[in-house]
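Table S2 (continued). Query chain:
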Amino acid sequence: MTELKTVALFLVTAVAEILGCYLPSLWLKEGKSAWLLVPAAASLALFAWLLSLHPTASGRVYAAYGGVYIFVAILWLWSVDGVRPTVWDFVGSLVALAGMAIIMFAPRSV
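Corresponding output:
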C-alpha cells in the first residue's frame, strides 16, 4: 500500500509541476493572458509542497520523482500536445519508472 501511495503522490506532483511550467509557456509562446502566471505559481508551490510529503531523504525523493515525471510528460505530450508518442518514448518511460521503483522501494538498512 505504501508503494501505491508513493506512486500516486509522485503522479499528482508531476502534473502540478508540468502545469506550472505549461501555463507560462502558453503566455510566452502563444500570447495567452499573463493571468495564467497566477495559477502557474500556485501549481509550482503545490509541486514543492507535494515533494516535501515523502518521508524519505529529499535527494532520494528528487531522484526517484524524475522517473515519474518522464512518464507523465510523455502522457502530457500525447493528451495535451496531441503528439502521439513513439514506441521508444514508451520504452524510455518504462525504464525511467523502473529506475524510480528501484530507488524508492529497494530494501535498505536505514
